[in-house]
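Bit of a strange request maybe. I'm writing a small parser for structure token strings and I need a real example to test against, not something I typed by hand. Could someone generate the tokens for this chain?
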Amino acid sequence: MTKKILYLFILVLIPTQVFSMHIMEGYLPVKWSLVWSLAFVPVFLYGIKNIQKLIRQTPEKRMILAMVVAFAFVLSSLKLPSVTGSSSHATGMGFGTALVGPASMSIVGTIVLLFQVFLLAHGGLTTLGANAFAMAFVGPIMTYVIYKVCQRGGVSLRIALFSAAVLGNLATYVTTSAQLAFAHPDPVSGISGAFIKFISIFGITQIPVAIVEGLITVMVINVLISNDFIKESALFSFGFNRFKTKELAHGTK
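Reply from user aminoacidic:
Good idea to test on real output. This should exercise your parser:
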């Protein structure tokens, strides 16, 4: 038992040396680092504005934002080894998107990525823009859209939550694969061939990880609802410039 715990500890704390779901430091050419960083800047600025408005209208949500950051950091820090030295992990973005909306997750995701850079040597500063674009923008947007589609289709809450969290996670790794393919096209098959290579590397472990994240998201949110920490109607209620007050407050009934 002790050996298993030690092995898990080593897997979590030792950084990967080839590919990971987050692109490692120095792996992207300067051009692509700048492209993805610039693409993420407006998303980040909008997220700041969104969070400021969220906190101004309901100050008690500071605690919920802190919980979302902590949940995402812990969940995304647990890495599962994959082939050729890569790793896969959950993102925690689905859970956060359900509670504070996709726009706020651009800030939450960036904070989590910075924690991982400095505390776990996972990802990198030069690749922060690319990683944030994939995890803190594409993932939450996909999660939000999938949930709303399921909701309009009359799908049950649990199935909608599960589907949104799983597909949001997979959208992150698909985006990362595309980023790597653009930066490192295959000499023979080009960008498409490189994309297939990268998505195959991630897919072996990322698909089961995404399923596990979906299950965890459903279980944790069920606990929060059953303990009156949040209302079911408050889930995914924070879209773009849409806020419902007094629905996500701690202890609100």
